[in-house]
Design goal:
The protein has 380 residues and is of the alpha/beta class. The protein has two domains: 128 residues, Aspartate Aminotransferase, domain 1; 238 residues, Type I PLP-dependent aspartate aminotransferase-like (Major domain) (Aspartate Aminotransferase, domain 2, 3-Layer(aba) Sandwich), CATH 3.40.640.10. It contains 13 helices and twelve strands. It has a seven-stranded mixed β-sheet with strand order 2-8-7-6-5-3-4, with helices on both faces. Strands 9-10-12 form a three-stranded antiparallel β-sheet. Strand 3, helix 4 and strand 4 form a beta-alpha-beta unit. Helix 1 runs antiparallel to helix 8. The longest helix is centred in the N-terminal third of the chain and has 21 residues.
């Protein structure tokens, strides 16, 4: 089996799974309990929070645990929007955001908020000048992803941070789910970023765990109320085993980040060079200003799902861009936003690499691609 769908989810590290099992079986007290088992759980919870904060260069008081990226995006969009109603009801998100952001924005629109979608250029990067034109006196929140999940374009977070430097009343949210441990932290978690969302299973942690960075002093309404956990910002009994495993996975992935970048860049470069040799292949990703591990392409005239299943027959696993919307059968929203014709956008498939992949797998992929390409000749 060759797994090339790491942007959808990653295989948990054995060390992270071992941590999960150990905590779940030995430290199973509720952190909210007053007895010694609860205190033991609280100590581990706060140690995990501290480790994550230190790895990101932030304070532990700025890290809040969630169930993952989707909850985090929903929380920030809705929580900030309602918290800042007295100052305005205008929100800007890019038109290439993950559905967790885009659908949250559309829901807010149905609740009386005004939403503008910042356009991107033909390569998939937010147009900062056009974003600037959308800003109004009543704009309260801007949300831009760090790395696009469909094509891997690294968004100009620093330029947007500079744009917002003299606009302290506007909250700036970054969806960092596809960025963390893949590109340098400083490129997406600038001093101007007020909120950022993360998901454990994207960096070899376990599913159902994530966290949100909330800059000290920034206000947000809770999405979940009840027991008052997470400083009364996110009520529900903490997934302690998952949180501890997340801290372990983040540390291991950060330690391997340089090796990850070097190795995936090398593999991506070879894939790109070889795929470009085929006349009916269109490339949607590039090397410069793109994440090192994501490469999206299509075979003209062949729908993406056909290509995905063709590779699956050879036990090679890729995806049709966003895993969260692939089963819906919609073309990649990012490609449509880039102005790519719908019929061509529907051909898109995504390879997403990891340190677990190697050159022998890339060679096998390319050998298999040649077979599939020939088989689709009549369709093309």
């Amino acid at each position: 089996m060759i797994y090339l769908d790491n942007s959808a989810t990653t295989k948990p590290y054995p060390e992270a799974l071992a941590t999960y099992i150990e905590v779940a079986s030995k430290i199973w007290g509720n952190p909210s309990s007053l007895h010694s088992l609860g205190s033991q759980a609280t100590r581990l919870l706060e140690a995990s929070r501290r480790q994550i904060a230190e790895l990101l260069g932030k304070s532990s008081s700025e890290i809040f645990f969630t169930s993952g990226g989707t909850e985090g995006d929903n929380w920030v969009l809705k929580g900030v929007a309602f918290e800042k109603v007295p100052f305005g009801k205008h929100i800007i998100v890019s038109n290439i955001e993950h559905p967790a952001v885009k659908e949250s924005a559309l829901w807010l629109q149905s609740q009386g908020f005004e939403i503008d979608f910042a356009p991107v250029d033909k390569s998939g990067f937010v147009d900062v000048d056009k974003l600037a034109e959308l800003i109004r006196p009543d704009t309260t929140l801007i949300s831009i992803m760090a790395v696009n999940n469909e094509i891997g374009s690294i968004q100009p977070i620093q330029k947007i941070s500079d744009l917002l430097a003299d606009k302290p009343t506007i909250s700036f949210h970054v969806d960092a789910v596809q960025a963390v441990t893949k590109i340098p932290t400083a490129t997406y978690l600038t001093d101007r970023v007020d909120f950022a969302t993360f998901s454990s299973h994207k960096f070899h942690g376990v599913r159902g765990v994530g966290f949100v960075y909330i800059k000290s002093g920034k206000k947000i309404s809770p999405l979940l109320t009840g027991g008052g956990q997470e400083s009364d910002k996110r009520s529900t009994t903490e997934n302690l085993a998952g949180i501890a495993a997340t801290a372990k996975a983040l540390r291991l992935s950060m330690e391997k980040q340089e090796a990850f970048a070097q190795r995936t860049t090398q593999m991506k470069k070879i894939l790109l060079e070889e795929l470009q040799k085929y006349p009916d292949v269109v490339i949607f990703s590039d090397m410069e200003d793109f994440a090192p591990h994501i490469l999206t392409f299509g075979i003209k005239g062949v729908r993406g799902e056909v290509v995905v299943h063709a590779f699956e027959d050879y036990e090679i696993y890729i995806s049709t861009t966003s895993a969260c919307s692939s089963k819906v059968g919609k073309p990649a929203g990012t490609l449509i936003a880039m102005g790519i014709e719908k019929s061509l956008a529907q051909t898109a498939v995504r390879i997403s690499l990891d340190l677990d992949n190697d050159m022998s797998q890339i060679e096998q992929f390319l050998t298999t691609f040649k077979i599939i390409y020939e088989k689709t000749r009549k369709v093309r």
